[in-house]
Fold these 2 entries.
Entry 1:
Amino acid sequence: MTATEGEVRRRADRLRAEIRRHDHLYHVESRPEISDGAYDKLFRELRAIEEAFPHLQTPDSPTQRVGADPLSELPVVRHVATMLSLDSSEAAEDARRFDERVRKAVEGPVEYLAEPKLDGSSLELVYVDGVLDRAVTRGNGREGEGVTENARTIPSVPLRLRLAEHPATLDPSNGGPSASADALPTPSLLAVRGEVLMYLSSFEELNRTRVEAGLEPYANPRNAAAGALRQLDSRITRTRPLEFFAYDILHVEWRDDSRLGGDADAALDTNTGAAFETDEQAAGALQGWGLRLPDRTRKVADIEEAIAYHAEFARDRDDLDYEIDGVVLKLNALAPRDALGSTSHHPRWAFAFKFAPRQEVTRLERITVQVGRTGKLTPLALLRPVEVGGVTVSRASLHNREELERRDVRAGDLVRIQRAGDVIPQVVERVEEPGRTRGEPFRMPEECPRCGASVVEEGPFVVCSNRLGCPAQLERGIEHFVSRGGLDIEGLGSETVALLVGEGLVRQPADLFDLTPADLLELEGFAETRSRKLVEAIQRAKKTELARFIYGLGIPEVGATVARVLAAEFRDLAILREAAPERLEEVEGIGPIMSEKITRFFNDDARAASVDAILSKGFELIPPPEQESRALDGRSFVFTGRLDSITRSEAKRRVESLGGRVVSSVSTATGYLVRGGKPGSKAKKAEELGVPVLDEQAFLRLLEE
Ligand code: IVH
């Protein structure tokens, strides 16, 4: 029997809703509920239906994120409301002055919403009746470039707003709407402002693949994101790892809004201030509609608390996976914003309290060449020391031969350097000094500066051909093997490694495990206690987690995360070593490039011999624990209405401690709906979908059991 068109249409609608929900869970909330395989299955089914019945396809379907035909130029599009800039300064005094001006104009206590100032590219998203209609870059603030097709390819940009619950307060975990069953209507027009950026880890990965393909790397994540956003071919944008974070409602209109006392049919033209009382509520609404907010957005009670927040973020800045260049303070109450108004440049109710810049100019004293773990020769700039964003920098990477030639930096030049996250500082460009006589162009050596072996060119790289025979490669390899993410051997830093290799005590990594205290006593700086302690630490490290060992081997492309994935999947080094590329590619997150590098590593005779030698010293490699099953594993809960004997957050904590999840909206996949007093519309929906409904007592009994 074949399905009727109505049935197919309903199935497609169901699939779209389900896929959208999983997209949101994955990309916005970072807590997926299903495996990639199960997701792909839903996606393939929807695509098959839409291919067979093209008229059933909708523009906001999750299948429509693939990119469209290239444009010849980007259209100029007017913004719904002017996208102003921000008043900014690095000085706490200026932040205090901003606060004084605000307090003069506002009666009563003044609260701010404080959030990171994301260092990306500003973007306006416009939703008409809940569906993404257009996306526009900031441009001159009044009009920008229409990049709608490009924005559609960004997974964290919803193609359609969620029919949301309107949270009364911002969920501190950013995990989704909290509290209140009061449903927020879908606006007829919503203009959202936010930032498009690239995570540092994705950026580095992108640059690595570009360099390997012989392309120029991007100077920084901001340029990479801005370039990707302004592509004429959205299919290229789709391959770039872009993220969107929303931070402002530029404008909102409702068609039928009882809250505003509106007339049922007339579209009410309101500004954000008429729809919400505070920015916190507006942010909660954005979150409820399925947009992702910047992490760690917080309400602060006064300017001193804001200054402390700034200091805290400045400290944590290097730990983040994205660049921020300060914090933004916004007056939380919306009504007084109108009274404060704006200059032509910035609103008077917001302030960007910036961090010290991470770019500085200094003199390049000399260029040397470093030999890396895999034999790559990297030109390194030795600099006149300079403070960059609170850290003294005296060396910076010049990437590789091609980059060095392209930037044409030479000893003696004035250069602009830049630091991002924890990565080593880079030389961005040469600063022109008209009239100064420059030094000679730098040439990469024709032999390895460490071992004198010949070098070979591999794409843009120059590589020492001596591999494990090169002391530099051996030293870097050992440093990595014993590093914190690897065997984590205390007391075995780079200086000691250099001594051990230099004195000929260690000719391959396995030799470490034969060292005796007597051997070490020969070395400079080693007395009895230190020698004994180091040998003990080395011996202890033979019992270690499999994941650490895999990471420590230094397989190209295999960082700590991939090592953990491999350990969980194969659970035994011998099995991993034998795994065929096709088998490796079955593992989530491992593509053809990585699988090729892994098999090449293990099939290399010299590497294999080195690994065998290490293992012959008696290692115990511990696989990760098997996931134990818990009572509520895989079951999802939705709450509606008031609970009397337990708070929502406590209920959530207990569900999660038993392996369950708390989600915000009801679907056929929902395990249970928990109904408290004065339930919202979710209770009705659960009944319609046949989701089991528990009252508070039944819920508590379930937790007890
Ligand atoms: S609020 C007019 N919040 O910084 C107020 N802006 O230098 C609306 N930016 O062009 C902007 N992170 O694109 C706001 N959390 C944040 C932000 C942020 C980054 C950008 C914004 C603006 C630029 C000003």
Entry 2:
Amino acid sequence: MRVVVTGGAGFLGSHLCDALLARGDEVVAIDNLITGSLANVEHLFGNAAFTFQHHDVSNFIHVAGPVDRIMHLASPASPADFERIPIQILKVGSRGTQHALGLAKDKGARFFLASTSEVYGDPLVHPQPETYWGNVNPIGPRGVYDEAKRFAEAMTMAYHRYHDVDVRIVRIFNTYGERMRPDDGRAVSNFIVQALAGQPITIYGDGSQTRSFTYVEDEIRGFLALLDSDQTGPINIGNDNEFSIRQLAEMVLELTGSSSPLVFEDLPVDDPTQRKPDLTLARTLLGWEPKVQLREGLARTSEWFAAQATKGQL
Ligand code: NAD
Ligand code: UDP
């Protein structure tokens, strides 16, 4: 298979490139590096099956030659970016998705959309099944991301129904692991970096809000299970063990042996109070389930961050 991965130099995109190449696929990664880094894919540059295009997919996408699969991951994903680069997020979710779909239509390729649990907003149904339509504030600061992804899902289904493009939609729940940006702003990377540096752990609100954290290896295995299946989706891929943010902070402190104090800061506007996937579809239709639980995944991730720190790369 020849697979185009938009956002291929990002956290998830680079792990996906690794997994595709490992199973013998050819990969064309496209990225404008707005939140990604060449450091995530530099180990692939000597691989003849890997090519990289530095390009903003909100502009027309050109890929020479045949393409079998297009996996559209390009989009900033951290809430810290929602206020920093809101227009780029809306553009890549709307125009970027349409260009990637247009390429899929032109090449006769299967299209895979990286959607998100954020389409459920601050959910009033718990855990969240794919049939839940969500509780999103369209005009709040998170709306730029949530609505871009909801639009991307709508556009994907329109190309599927109207142009008969073969599509897959995954709804990704909070995923963490090696290659997260240290200054990304997300809870897992912030807490580990703060703990390793002996700085205060910044808990937003009182830390009682919950998330269900997925280790990157499980998430990528879920992507490939959906990609290769006959299911259009959307399908939730995540871990259904739920933790409060305070519990996450305490686990990071324990694993790193840090004595950083906890400090409490303002809760961001519209921060979801709870989040946990209903995994019935993933389990029954894809035979997939998460294997790496939070303690083990966090241990691996903090080891990686510690190694980065010793290389002076934090
Ligand atoms: P990331 O920021 O590390 O990766 C996104 C990549 O897309 C980056 O390399 C960035 O440079 C690139 N990109 C952004 N806009 C682009 C554009 N216009 N043209 C070309 N490249 C562009 O984030 P990630 O966590 O790896 O997220 C990857 C995808 O998964 C995103 O679509 C995100 O919305 C989705 N997702 C991630 C999570 C998570 O917990 N990590 C959760 C839900 C959804
Ligand atoms: N959070 C926190 N401290 C931080 C970063 C995040 O308490 O330094 C909280 C954030 O408010 C949210 C949760 O942790 O309630 C998860 O945040 P993250 O940015 O990782 O993901 P998302 O909000 O997109 O689920």
